[in-house]
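Hi there,

I know you've been waiting on this one. I reran it after we fixed the sequence typo, so this is the corrected version. Both the input and the resulting structure follow.
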Amino acid sequence: MTTDMYEHKWNYLTGQAQNQALQGILYLYKKVIHKDVGWIEDIKHVSRVKHLPFVLSKDEVNKVLSHLEGIPLLISKLLYGSGMRLSECLGLRVQDIDLDYRTITVRDGKGEKDRITILPDKIIAELKQQIQRVKNLFIRDRAKKNVEVPLPYALDRKYPNASKEFNWQYIFPAKSLVYVKESKKNLRVHLHQSTFQKIFKEAVRKADITKHASPHTLRHSFATHLLQAGYDIRTVQELLGHNSVKTTMIYTHVLNRGIGVRSPLD
């Protein structure tokens, strides 16, 4: 590894540490000490170097999918077919899926924003089967009378019975329960990200994909393939939940028409 590469990695880690330290100080003063620290507003955050995303071709996506099965396969299809982030996908609840209108409501996405994205027709049957499995699990959990799902914010106090309702159940629940000593309750949480990431990484290896592909690569591929199909960039922006179209334009790096230049060799 060259000296420049070492310096780049060191600067990146230092930037991360500085940002984390700043957020820690802000939290301490605002939430614990309850003191206004106006001076800290002038401190600039260290910007992370932006890199072009890796994108899989449709053939490469299919190769990876061919090495998956069951729940990991369904999750992968959802990521690629809807453009969701992994955390958004695993956080889906029964009420977020509209099978009639073929839509998915992504709640509390990046920036704590809600948005609507597309539900692929090809996975409707698989998703219905998964929801039925969730319902069967919910019935068993309800019989135990001490199993609930965690709710966002303070909804558990506002709606004390919501955590025991079917519409709040996760689409991809974890197999094991999490026991909370304070409330003496067992929580049915969703599948952990690391569990899926390990399975996906192994599928990429088996598919002999040399690109640095992760679950998030499916989101990048979703956006790029929509642009390749001729969809308007602002439509893709809304589906991805980007604040600015400039963020979405990064996916034009693999499109000749996005760059606007044709190689003289061609």
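Quick highlight: Residues 3-42 form one domain.

Best,
R. S.
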